[in-house]
Amino acid sequence: MITIGVFGAGQLGRMLTLAGIPLGLRFRFYDPVPNSPAGQLAPQVVAAYDDSPALERFASEVDVITYEFENVPVDAARFVEKFVPVFPPPLALEKAQDRLVEKSFFSDLGIPTPRFTASGFNGFDVPAVLKTRRMGYDGKGQFIVRNMDELSFAMTQLRGQDLIVEELVPFEREISIVGVRGVDGAVAFYPLTINTHHEGILHRSVVPVQVHPLQGLAESHARKVMEALGYVGVLAIEFFELDGQLLVNEMAPRVHNSGHWTIEGALTSQFENHVRAMARFPLGSTNPIGAGAMVNLIGQIPPVQDILKIEGVHLHLYGKSPRPGRKLGHVTVVAGTDDLLMGKVEKIESLVCRD
Ligand code: AMP
């Protein structure tokens, strides 16, 4: 039996387990925080990422190691690579952990990004976005700057950290592609997902019936990234759509929140495809079943009874205690037409209180 080791035991690890168990796969998690969402389903080692004996023991108990968050220390990933295959390659972590390195990597591959610089505001127009180079996620560690007052406020808040300045893109839509690559180089892509954020946090993802006109372009960008990294597993790339163009915002070398709709909305979910790639099984079809959508439950969970009354919805709770801004679960729905889908999405959203 193949055992997959996972760095990080959050909800993504939990959903990898739920997808992998029916395939006969076993899971072990490594996370410094006890009783994490995935640790409720599979054994979890509680240890720090710089605890070499614990890392070595963990590597000896699994057949392959993967991760479910991109801020896993690269040193830990490189250390366990001495004992067991690590997918996606630690190089992908290195590129994704620093916004400057990441944007330069995309530019070098000829993939358009918003204009950016790490040398401050000199010569850079406002409005712009000031971001920390490292550890930013869900809109944390970033400020929109339109004038001198906002600049000095942002600089005070972000003092002492390495920063990147980006143009503020007047995007029409935010979209993302989720794809998977096997050890043999086979690739498959899900349809582009249209994402809506509130205060930097993903709120909902929608996949209409009609294929997005930029699907082919997004796939060719993602394929280039995968090939450059010798990638194995699921990769997500977030784009800004503007005037028929795609500008890359960031990538995630892991399963992604904007791919949760695939659990019920595609023939094979992103979670199953990731574990298939880890286990060196053939990849599954990424074809959608119809129009699909996902709504995040953030900060609070509406009464389960009310959610499940909406015909055709599926509820996924992560086993986390409520806290403002925390992702606690999500709801997915599939429908035959976009109108039917959006009718259900509106019903779900009417139950979701934003904090
Ligand atoms: P990030 O943490 O970089 O994914 O940013 C979170 C959200 O902030 C994005 O999903 C966008 O809605 C917004 N955002 C980030 N960077 C930019 C940018 N350069 N221009 C416009 N909006 C941005």
Please give a quick description of this structure:
With 355 residues, this protein is an alpha+beta fold. Helix content is 28%, strand content 27%.
Arithmetic mean of pLDDT: 95
> Would you give the CATH topology of the largest domain?
D-amino Acid Aminotransferase, Chain A, domain 1
Helix run count: 11
Structural class: alpha+beta
The CATH architecture of the largest domain is 2-Layer Sandwich
Query: Uncertain spans, ≥5 residues at pLDDT below 50?
Result: none
Query: Major sheet: size, sense and barrel closure?
Result: 9 strands, antiparallel
- Supply the CATH class of the largest domain: Alpha Beta
Number of domains: 3
Comma- or semicolon-separated keywords:
Rossmann fold, nine-stranded antiparallel beta sheet, alpha+beta, 17 strands, Dna Ligase, domain 1, globular, 11 helices, binds adenosine monophosphate, 3 domains, 355 residues, D-amino Acid Aminotransferase, Chain A, domain 1, 27% strand
Describe the protein's architecture and organization.
By secondary structure, the chain is an alpha+beta fold. It folds into 3 domains: 3-86, Rossmann fold; 115-167, 2-Layer Sandwich (Dna Ligase, domain 1), CATH 3.30.1490.20; 173-351, D-amino Acid Aminotransferase, Chain A, domain 1, CATH 3.30.470.20. It is built from 11 helices and 17 strands. The chain has helices spanning 11-20, 52-60, 74-80, 90-96, 99-108, 148-157, 215-229, 262-265, 270-278, 304-309, 338-351, and strands at 3-7, 26-30, 44-45, 64-67, 116-117, 128-132, 142-145, 163-167, 173-181, 187-189, 193-198, 201-207, 233-242, 245-252, 291-298, 314-317, 327-335. Strands 9, 10, 11, 12, 13, 14, 15, 16 and 17 form a 9-stranded antiparallel beta sheet that branches. Strands 3-2-1-4 form a 4-stranded parallel beta sheet, sandwiched between helices. The chain is globular. The chain starts with a strand and ends with a helix.
